[in-house]
Specification:
Largest sheet: none
Shape: rod-shaped
Radius of gyration: 22 Å
Distance between the termini: 43 Å
Strand content: under 5%
Helix content: over 70%
Number of strands: 0
Order of helices and strands: HHHHHH
Structural class: mainly alpha
């Protein structure tokens, strides 16, 4: 997979993540509202409980999708390195895991994952 395709995929994932966060904010206002809705489900009349349960279920599904999308985007450099069979995949994964939460660490891991490995040195003949 070319570097251009990976960059386009990363941009699409970031846009989808932002849209998902906006939708969750519109649906519940905040995480506190989401938790309050969860605690109020049992004290409401049956019709309201059904509506609350449906809203809660949609919210849980949206949060799970956002979590999966976030993890995929976070570990995209590691996935890229593994697919490209990089010699130093473990080092890229470690950098991604420990410093990927900083934008700089994630960019360094992504650049490292998309660069071409140097060819192995050829042995010299002894004369």
């Amino acid at each position: 997979m070319s570097t251009r395709k990976l960059i386009v995929i990363a941009i699409i994932l970031v846009v989808a993540l932002v849209i998902g966060v906006v939708l969750v904010e519109q649906q519940f206002g905040s995480l506190n509202n989401f938790l309050r809705l969860l605690s109020e489900v049992s004290s409401e009349p049956a019709s309201s409980r059904t509506e609350a349960f449906v809203r809660f279920s949609i919210g849980v599904i949206m949060l799970l999708v956002l979590a999966a999308l976030s993890l995929f985007l976070y570990f995209l450099p590691s996935i890229t390195a593994k697919r490209r069979k990089k010699i130093n995949y473990r080092a890229i994964f470690t950098l991604n895991l420990l410093a990927g939460w900083t934008f700089v660490g994630w960019v360094i891991a992504m650049v490292w994952a998309t660069t071409v490995d140097a060819p192995p040195p050829t042995p010299k003949e002894v004369t």
